[in-house]
């Protein structure tokens, strides 16, 4: 993982995926063109917020990211978002355009499952009242495990025979089945290690295969559950119910429609609003701000959003969705710089121009591969030379200068 992180957005129809993607891709942080090789039609660039190194050194005013942006020490790092619209219950059996959407998901490093927590859309996205959204959370998981499990079990007799004949190790055999879902030997080994299976592969039964697939989905597709539509009065009871059952690290409360609305008002000059914050400034509170006066209906709508969302939850939650995905993926920002003493690349160019997200535990040598595409002659950190095999530790050796080999 490096500059190619892909977050897949899934959820039943009308859960609010498009609205959330709109909010995430419309960040005012868009100050540079990110050089992804190709952007396919169902992909977009979103921005994950992290605390930038510039704030550690009092250099907030001099921070000049080449991609994304940095405002008051909050850095927006571009990442690719994948819109997996159209996934409906029964997709693994080919319902809807089922398998195509599941296929798209294979490339994702993490998923965001957008759930309509107001309970005002049924399992297929039709308007209703009193639907239990916790069912949707199980639905996605079951859909994924059924999709992978069915394929694995279909091929298992042959896989098992080949395993016995070739005397392969279980990781190798299982990896040949999971590689199509974007797995690698490290992930496959992690799945098997975590299950502590004593029985040899040739005696694995269906229940064991189910456990393996379940763990594989957990590890390969870490999922943020974005409980959307928290502005709706029916949401509270559903949130409490889900919060009792789910891992809190995976849950984010959000109101995508509020975020889109506030950003639009800010663009039109009616309010000052900083994405991810709880503050909405209007001309009534700040008469000298130059903001436009609000109509009665706009004023009421802002007050509703403040009462139902901002004051209760601290923000619309939309920015937290990608930040949480980064956390689940265990990613840390690394800052490659030319000059380790002043953090710049060129004189008069500002500081911390580049930033790349890498998995916790990635070594400095691996970061060199990502940043300069090869081995570095030496890697310098703030406290002197850093070894190729030294793991990156956030806040300690996450600012690095790579000296190129003479022959590169
Ligand atoms: N109250 C409320 N409504 C929302 C929110 N987010 C989205 N909606 C509404 O929910 C409806 C569906 O939103 P979309 O963003 O189109 O949902 P989707 O998941 O992309 O739907 P499909 O394109 O059918 O897959 C629209 O009427 C949105 O305005 C929210 O945070 N609160």
UniProtKB/TrEMBL annotation:
Coiled coil: none annotated. The keyword Nucleotide-binding applies. It comes from the Eukaryota. The keyword Nucleotide-binding applies. Keywords: GTP-binding, Nucleotide-binding. Gene3D superfamilies: 1.10.8.470, 3.10.20.30, P-loop containing nucleotide triphosphate hydrolases (3.40.50.300). InterPro entries: Beta-grasp_dom_sf, G_OBG, GTP-bd, P-loop_NTPase, YGR210-like_G4. GO terms for molecular function: ATP hydrolysis activity; GTP binding. Residues 5-274 form the OBG-type G domain. PROSITE patterns: G_OBG. One of its GO terms (cellular component) is cytoplasm. This is GTP binding protein.
């Amino acid at each position: 993982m490096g500059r190619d992180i892909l977050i897949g957005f899934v959820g039943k129809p009308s859960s609010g995926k498009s609205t959330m993607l709109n909010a995430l891709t419309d960040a005012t942080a868009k100050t540079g063109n990110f050089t992804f090789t190709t952007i396919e039609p169902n992909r977009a660039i979103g921005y994950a917020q992290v605390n930038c190194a510039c704030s550690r050194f009092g250099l907030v005013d001099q921070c000049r990211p080449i991609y994304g942006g940095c405002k008051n020490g909050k850095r927006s790092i571009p990442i690719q978002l994948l819109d997996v619209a159209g996934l409906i219950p029964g997709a693994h059996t080919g319902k809807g355009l089922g398998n195509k959407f599941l296929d798209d998901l294979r490339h994702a490093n993490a998923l965001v499952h957008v759930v309509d927590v107001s309970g005002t859309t049924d399992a297929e996205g039709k308007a209703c009242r009193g639907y239990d959204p916790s069912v949707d959370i199980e639905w996605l998981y079951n859909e994924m495990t059924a999709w992978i499990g069915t394929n694995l079990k279909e091929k298992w007799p042959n896989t098992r025979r080949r395993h016995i004949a070739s005397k392969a190790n279980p990781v190798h055999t299982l990896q040949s089945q999971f590689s199509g879902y974007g797995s690698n030997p490290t992930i496959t080994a992690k799945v098997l290690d975590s299950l502590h299976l004593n029985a040899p592969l040739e005696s694995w039964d269906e229940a064991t295969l189910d456990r393996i697939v379940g763990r594989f989905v957990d590890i390969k597709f870490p999922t943020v559950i974005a409980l959307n539509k928290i502005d709706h009065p029916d949401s509270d009871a559903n949130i409490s119910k889900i919060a009792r059952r789910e891992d809190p690290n995976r849950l984010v409360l959000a109101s995508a429609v509020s975020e889109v609305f506030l950003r639009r008002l800010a663009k039109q000059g009616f309010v000052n609003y900083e994405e991810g914050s709880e503050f909405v400034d209007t001309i009534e509170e700040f008469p000298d701000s130059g903001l436009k006066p609000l109509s009665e209906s706009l004023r009421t709508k802002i007050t509703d959003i403040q009462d139902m969302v901002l004051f209760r939850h601290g923000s619309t939650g939309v920015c937290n969705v990608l930040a949480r995905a980064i956390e689940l993926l265990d990613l840390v920002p690394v800052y490659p710089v030319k000059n380790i003493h002043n953090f710049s690349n060129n004189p008069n160019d500002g500081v911390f121009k580049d930033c790349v997200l890498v998995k916790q535990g990635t070594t400095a040598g691996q970061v060199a591969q990502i940043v300069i595409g090869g081995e570095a002659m030496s890697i310098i950190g703030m406290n002197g030379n850093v070894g190729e095999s030294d793991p990156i530790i956030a806040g300690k050796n996450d600012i690095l200068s790579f000296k190129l080999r003479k022959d590169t």
